Amino acid sequence: MSSTTLKRYSFHLPIIMALGQTVLSTAQAQEIQSTPPSPLEVSRPLRPGPARWVEDYRFLDNPAKRTDPFDALRFQRLSDSAWLQTGAELRYRADAADQPVFGLRGVKDDSYLMQRAQVHVDLHLFDDSLRTFIQLQNTRTWGKDLPSPSDQSRNEIQQAFIDGNLHYQSGTLTTRVGRQEMAYGNQVLVTYREIPNIRQVFDGVRLSWIAKDGYKLDAFATRPVVSRDNGSFNDPSNHQQKFYGLYGTLPLSSVLKADLYAFGLETEQRKLDGFTGEDNRYTFGTRLFGTWNKFDWSWDLMKQVGHMASADIDAWAVSSDSGYTFAGPWKARLGLRVDAASGDKDGDHRAGTFDPLFPKNAFYGQASLTTLSNIILVGPTLRFSPFNKFRFEPGIFAAWRESNDDGVYLPGMTTAPGTTTSSGKRLGTLYQANANWTPTANVSVDLDYLFYDIGSAIESAGGNNSQILVLRSTFRF
After folding, report:
1. Which domain holds residue 397?
2. What is the pLDDT of residues 334-381, one digit of tens each?
3. CATH no. for residue 219?
């Protein structure tokens, strides 16, 4: 090759390199722009509901993104491989109930105030290979005539766990040991339990595999924590119960995913379906969920087997929520909830009542009058935002007993007094509504109303129509 040719190529080489660099930079910029920002970058913290340990504020390393007054508190970079996150919550809930538990426990009205105060620290070390999360909580209740086990526990360790994370090219394996909140799927069987006051928590170990292609698998072995309403820092593990299981997620397609799960709940002594003794209950199920165009759906199909004292457990349940979101500024979603769960039948020497384990009963309102057991429930829901920072969500549900031989179940698998021998299948109609206002990113206000127009199954037990009005205000950072 001649020197003239070399000079000609050497003249064009810087131009080619510059063009290549420009194309690469443009592609990288487009890739960054196509990656949607974390929801926390838009508004923080998360709205009340999810566990605080899911929050990731590493994007606050960028000073330009520190736009919230509390950002200096919620995230501190300690070194190149370590950071600290903090947060807090103060919530008050005021209830006014008319005929609580349908008036079947001798109380005509009940008005009370609940407080929940939380603070947490979240320390990440060695580029998140090691993590420690600690959350303290104070829960109090004043003026309640019909207390429940999840009302108050004074000062308590709500969560305290250590994570060990192994990062692979295909995903991340996490081992979590300690006291922790858990929720799976649509929270039909395992939930954080946001109502009425103390959130559900477990002591134990959990292994989680999260693959980059969307596959997930959890394995856990725990004991539920017992809330004691007197004293502080004295809530123990429930040594009468073991709760363990597997939960996996399969991304079948771009519009359909499936969860497969198996849970075991072993209780040393229990009374249910006319039997008293050891209850070894195993729940197998699948959840089909996804979105297509403006449609969304989540359907759980569940089967329970095992042994209750000398009887075989044979129970089932279905829980579904399907909806369509309309175009427009109100973001209106019209939904349909269809839930059903088996009840016990007399004379077959089987325990047929479905136990929803640790469910999200808030599906049915704030009154703690309904759970997924011996029930058929159908009704429409609507959610829309007529104004900025305001959401309204009404719903109407018609409900029946699945089995007339079984009682009407309340949260906690207790029956409404007198309903195990009452006649009639109709439970009634539930009219509920929630109004949510978020004036700032740190403050949310909820107003809930529920009216339970009872049917023959409750009326024949001496019950009355029940209603409740709930006001909740929450500050968190």
Report:
1. 51-476
2. 999 999 999 999 888 899 999 999 999 998 988 899 999 999 999 999
3. 2.40.160.100
